[in-house]
Design brief:
alpha+beta, 7 strands, binds zinc ion
Length: 109
């Protein structure tokens, strides 16, 4: 490979890295609600309520002011309702709520 071929490729990779760093702001965080048969994603910057029913448990997920919480749930243990940091897990509903940091460098599997 000639040197003239290498430089443009390096420039493209460098540009891609810069674009990724500049145009993927931290505010692009995503709330991911993982259910048994589906995954829902919402931007954490938009306030909303998400109602869902899984395995006979009705959950109301509240996204407000950049935070996510379970406002109410009909599950037995109510652990999800009392979880305010990190991942929220509702075992009876088999629902996991996580906040993704908007970076797409995760390795699948
Ligand atoms: Zn629960």
């Amino acid at each position: 490979m000639k040197k003239a071929d290498v430089i443009p490729i390096a420039a493209v990779i460098a540009a891609a890295v810069i674009i990724a760093l500049v145009f993927v702001p931290k505010q692009a965080d995503t709330v991911r609600i993982t259910c048994e048969n589906a995954v829902y994603e919402y931007p954490i910057g938009e306030n909303r309520r998400v109602e869902l029913t899984e395995n006979g448990v009705s959950l109301t997920v509240l996204i407000e002011n950049g935070r996510v919480s379970v406002e109410k749930s009909t599950c037995r243990d109510q652990i999800c309702v009392h979880t305010h940091t990190g991942s929220i897990i509702c075992m009876p509903a088999r629902v996991v709520i996580t906040v993704e940091d908007g970076e797409y460098d995760h390795v699948a599997g």
